[in-house]
Amino acid sequence: MLSFQSFLNQEIFSVGSYTLKVHMVAMILVIIVGTRILLWIVKKMLFRKADIDEHKRGNVQAVYQIIRYVLWLGAFGLALETIGIKVTLLLAGSAALLVGIGLGLQQTFNDVISGVILLTERSIKIGDVLEIDSDVVKIQTIGIRTSKGLNTDDISIIIPNSLITTSKVINWSHQNDKTRFRIDVGVAYGSNVDDVIRILEESAFEHPEVYDRELTEGRLMGFGSSSLDFQLLFFSKNTFRIGSVKSDIRRNIVRKFAENNIVISFPQLDVHLKQSED
């Protein structure tokens, strides 16, 4: 027993009055292992329901991320105390240095604060479909500094959290699991308005991703310079791949217009030539 205690008290190295001993390193390892075990237990408790849906899983993941960062921060402070570094004195003594670092890493700190806001406020969750700067992205992870999303081309995008909190972001998944979309089309003057509306609605009905037949509506929106302007409104749950859905519906519209002799308009200009009198 004495030999083991003497082993723990052995010096690894010393610098001036500071000495690093074996038991300090052992305590750091215990702190790291203990933190990992505690996080594993917390994760198992939070995700104990196997049938949890995607939106609830995003909420639980946000809570787990907050707990994870807090535990690791506490473990880091405890490790510093274990090796004889007083955290309070370290922060007080390096106040000027921290100010300089803060100015240099202002954007990074902004991203970190934004990440804390996202994780605590939970206005955006994992699995949400967002439109950010005209890009449609499905959120996969929310980190403390950056979030990772998947765009419609199946390309992973790293998004600074400050971009989400400071920019105008459309969350297509925030309120409901279905979203209303629209398709605009213009037809030639002289076309039968009722036939056009019927064809627009039928073109949407034929697609399996259109949510509700009763909520699908074709409208005459106005009288353009070269066309009668119509709009097709429909709901779909496939918000992430809506570009493909719209493409299929447009193909149906083109086919049905051709079958019913309805012409999709294009800009036209009449030019009148005035003959000069000799």
From TrEMBL:
Keywords: Cell membrane, Membrane, Transmembrane, Transmembrane helix. It is a multi-pass membrane protein. Residues 182-264 form the Mechanosensitive ion channel MscS C-terminal domain. It is found in: Cell membrane. SUPFAM superfamilies: Mechanosensitive channel protein MscS (YggB), C-terminal domain (SSF82689), Mechanosensitive channel protein MscS (YggB), transmembrane region (SSF82861), Sm-like ribonucleoproteins (SSF50182). InterPro entries: LSM_dom_sf (IPR010920), MS_channel_C (IPR049278), MscS-like_channel (IPR052702), MscS_beta-dom_sf (IPR023408), MscS_channel_2nd (IPR006685), MscS_channel_C_sf (IPR011066), MscS_channel_TM-2 (IPR011014). Residues 108-174 form the Mechanosensitive ion channel MscS domain. It holds the Pfam family MS_channel_2nd. Its main location: membrane. Belongs to the MscS (TC 1.A.23) family. This is Mechanosensitive ion channel. It comes from Maribacter arenosus.
